[in-house]
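**Sequence, structure tokens**
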Amino acid sequence: MPDVRLASSQGKWILLTTVLGSSMALLDSTVVNVALPRIGRDLNTSLGALQWTVNAYLLTLAGLILLGGSLGDRYGRRKIFVLGVVWFAAASLLCGLAPNDIVLIAARALQGIGGALLTPGSLALIQASFHPDDRAKAVGLWSGFGGIGAAIGPFLGGWLVDGPGWRWVFLLNVPLALLCVPVALRHVPESVDGRAHGRFDALGAVLAALTLGFVTYALIDAGTMSLLAVAGLATGVAFVYVERRREDPMLPLDIFASRQFTALNVVTLCVYGAFGGYFFLTALQLQVVAGYSALAAGTALLPSTVLMLLFSARSGALADKIGPRLPLTVGPLLCATGMMLMLRVGPHANYLTDVFPAVVVMGAGMVTLVAPLTASVLASVDTARAGIASGINNAAARAASLIAVAALPLLAGMGPEAYRSPVRFDAAFDRAMPICAGVLVAGSALAFALVRRPAPGCVRPECRTHGNVMSPPLEAKGH
């Protein structure tokens, strides 16, 4: 049984290690969008290359995050976590030194692999290290500090882009890793899951990544859509076939026998697909059309994250009392309203009258729905499967963002050079936001029709405070 106490010196070092590690991935997911216009100008890239700058990372992260957690259980959580930190930092260095968009995109894909190793590993280390009486508090501090990192990410990213340059958005991860790794090796105990057995589902992970990759490529490069869409369908069918036949599948398909779990993941796809498209395009809209600096654009979106940090725990407590159906119905509608308010943001937009109301309403919607969504996912499966249910839901959210960033510019009629023209980009943005809002309305309708109050005595989330706007919180195995 883990016996490290939070108040001890070792406990504080463990907490610092996990916060540093998870903050690397969390900062990266929130700051890159702000840097996109400058990356595009400096490397002379098309809009498609900017889409891949975001999606190459999401592709490998979403495809491999379930496998990453299993590797830690089998070979040592500290070992895989440290490997993830080193891998992520090395890929970040390559991103920062990239001479062109091709190298940058490849490095971003490598970053995603590192993220898939360290993201589940940071929470697993807390679970495996701390005494049961202290674990809930340790998780609360970990998620709270992580939320603060998410809040300062766009601000920090904007400052770096406007100051030393966009490359420092990636190079910042190197000193964080140099601090994190020695602390982990010195102060964090190693642990393995003695119950882990069987072969790893590497084939399933590869097929999942290929399916997402083919579909993403088909949407970004519309000229090859038919061929790649067929390839994506073929690998998707192969993935389902492999997962059905595996003794220890990466994605146990029988978990979807729970109607509630399936419905909640469809709602997740709607919600985080809309979020992914919104944050990708809004960061560009504020800079390309409204004329904001990178720092101003990053700061402009800060209220949404701050609201989540302040009120996500209270929202979860309220949902425990009234049930998840109402929050999961109202929350997406509020977010849809916030996105429609973003249509007011055009050339020379005033922050207080045009931008601020939209991001506040958006933040209120996110507060309303994110914590209840996570709690409902955990409650929809058996206690022993809460960890895998959380991992599937997190991967689904990232995959939804991936598809949205690929599909939305196509649906909105954005050409390869759209982001270089304020007039053209503004027109396309005005077509994109209603699409995102419509997806959220669909998610709201699904939640109203299908989500029910969970049974008493079900698993409750340990991550009560949440500030990541790009994905739901991960929950550890073995509650």
User: Anything to note?
Assistant: The chain has a mean pLDDT of 88. The domain at 254-479 is CATH 1.20.1250.20 (Growth Hormone; Chain: A;). Residues 9-43 form the longest helix (35 residues). The two ends are 13 Å apart (CA to CA).
